[in-house]
Every structure is written in structure tokens, then in C-alpha cells.
Amino acid sequence: MIKFVLVLWISAQTIYGFWLFDWFSPQEPPPQYALEHPMMTVTKVYGVGVGKSFLEAKTKALNDIATQLKSDVRSITSVSKNTQASQTQTDQQITVLTQRKIDNFTVIDESYRNDLVYVLIEHTFVKGE
User: pLDDT tens digits for 27-44?
Assistant: First the structure.
């Protein structure tokens, strides 16, 4: 009986020590700004980015700012009518283009959680933008 308990105890320690997946530890929640996007003010706009690296998250946060500041929306609509079958078909393609150089920004927060990087960037408007 003692040998059985000893083998069981050693087996449990081995499984725990070489456990490949840590299913029992809770996942850390993302930062608050990733759950609820900060609002744009008169002088500042915020961008949130998530990625597997800091560079990827920063790029996504800057793209987030760019899409909030200026967008060029182009739409192409085509309508075709089939009189024999009494059918009308409409196709629409919408493209959003953004081009903006963002120089005046500050990384407000950088968080590493659950193998992801969260970045919050603040862009301050410069007079004349």
C-alpha cells in the first residue's frame, strides 16, 4: 500500500512538473482601454493596438488614429436589370482610404498579457491639422 501511494505521489508530481498546458491558471483580462476605446477630445485622439509584438501593436494603434482623423470614402455602385426574368441586381464596392503622417504621438501605455501586447497611443493635434 505504501508503495502504491508513493508511486501515485511521484506520478502526480511528475505530471505537474512537466505539464505542457497550464489550463488551471486564469487568463489575465485585457487593459480597460482595449475593452472600452478612449474618446476623442478637441485636442487629442487615442489609438488602441493589439498584436503579438510591440511593433505590430503600435502600427495598429497608429492606424486606428489615422482612420479616426481622415477618411476618403469611395463607392462604386452598379445596377443591372434583367427584363426577361424581372430581376434587378445591385453590386456596391466601398473603399476607405487613409493617408496621414502622424508625428506627434506618445505611447501612454504598453501592457503584455496572455502572449499579446496592448498599446495605447495619444496623438495631440498641432495647429493647422
Answer: 889 999 999 999 988 889
Rounded distance between C-alpha atoms, residue 46 and residue 38, angstroms: 6
Total tally of structural domains belonging to the chain: 1
- Report yes or no: 57 and 118 within 8 Å, Cβ to Cβ: yes
Let me know if residue 74 belongs to a domain.
Answer: yes
Q: Report helix, strand or coil for 35.
A: helix
Question: So what's the pLDDT on residue 9?
Answer: 60
Buried b (16+ CB within 10 A) or exposed e, 83-93: eeeeeeeeeee
Kindly report whether the global pTM for this prediction surpasses the value 0.90.
Answer: no
Q: Is 49 helix (H, G, I), strand (E, B) or coil?
A: strand
- For residue 41, what are the domain limits? 2-124
The verdict on residue 129 lying in a domain is no
Strand locations in 1-129, DSSP E? Answer: 44-51, 72-82, 87-97, 105-113, 116-124
The CA angle 102-57-60, to the nearest 5 degrees, is: 50
